[in-house]
Specification:
Layout lengths: L1 H23 L7 H10 L6 E12 L2 E14 L4 E12 L5 E12 L3 E12 L4 E10 L4 E11 L5 E10 L4 E12 L2 E5 L1 E5 L4 E5 L3 E4 L2 E4 L2 E5 L4 E5 L7 E3 L3 H4 L1
Antiparallel strand pairs: 1-2, 2-3, 3-4, 4-5, 5-6, 6-7, 7-8, 8-9, 9-10, 9-11, 10-13, 11-12, 12-15, 13-14, 14-17, 15-16
Length: about 250
């Protein structure tokens, strides 16, 4: 059982440090080195199949994270580890809890981590990210997906788009294409957007438009403050801010 626990720790450690680092914005994702050292210290292993996996990682008396998976396999020749139907719960500082769920997961060559199939990440402070796959690049310190993604947050916020990159060192999430934002009766569109967790703001760029009823505003970029539910439009050069307000009399 000790060997099985070590294999699971190796496979999921990088995913936890990457995804947890993004959602929590605590730390810069440097824990991977310790996990890689543990992998190098592991004994020479043959192919291994595991069922009903449960692993708990603690530090002193504190539970740091735990993993549950229906099954898993490790392929020594290809340096490849897989997991089926997995749930990882990460216990962060200040009582926050991060949960990652996916149908399947894998690690290839120590540097590439993938989780795919109904991938959902939730946090106890009210945020949820869903997509069909995520890939972690250790060298670039990035989490990325080319697939549709949806971010749901506080105050009824919903952000949809196609393709995303999480920059762990910058602590931001960029949605790359076809961005659509909705919060209450306010909607916005743009070619791309960057979400800043600490500031609780969304920066829209690429022909951004924010609409509320019949009123709308455009500019070079629009900064949307999520908790305050307000927008600030900025122009640049000859590209000015445009605001259109329809008086109530005209609406009637």
């Amino acid at each position: 059982m000790k060997l099985s626990k070590l294999l699971i720790l190796i496979c999921m450690g990088l995913v936890l440090s990457a995804v947890g680092g993004y959602l929590l914005f605590g730390g810069d994702g440097n824990e991977e080195g310790k996990i890689i050292q543990e992998m190098e210290q592991a004994a020479e292993t043959a192919d291994l199949t595991l069922e009903e996996i449960h692993y708990v990682e603690t530090k002193g008396d504190k539970k740091e994270w735990e993993l549950r998976a229906k099954s898993g396999q490790h392929f020594r020749k290809d340096d490849y580890t897989t997991l089926e139907d997995l749930t990882v719960t990460f216990y962060a500082e200040e009582g926050r809890i991060i949960t990652l769920r996916g149908d399947k997961g894998s690690m290839k060559g120590r540097k590439e981590i993938e989780v795919w199939g109904n991938v959902v990440i939730t946090s106890s402070d009210g945020y949820r990210v869903s997509t069909n796959s995520l890939r972690f690049d250790d060298e670039k310190q990035q989490i990325s997906t080319a697939e549709p993604i949806m971010l749901e947050g506080k105050e009824g916020l919903q952000v949809k788009g196609v393709g995303a990159v999480v920059y762990l060192k910058k602590k931001t999430l960029s949605i790359l294409r076809k961005v659509r934002v909705k919060q209450g009766n306010r909607e916005a569109t743009s070619h791309e957007a960057t979400y800043y967790h600490r500031e609780s703001k969304l920066v829209l760029q690429g022909e951004p438009v924010v609409r509320e009823g019949d009123n709308w505003v455009t500019g070079k970029r629009i900064i949307y403050y999520i908790e305050e539910k307000r927008s600030v439009a900025e122009g640049e050069g000859e590209e000015r801010v445009t605001v259109t307000i329809i008086p109530r009399e005209e609406k009637q």
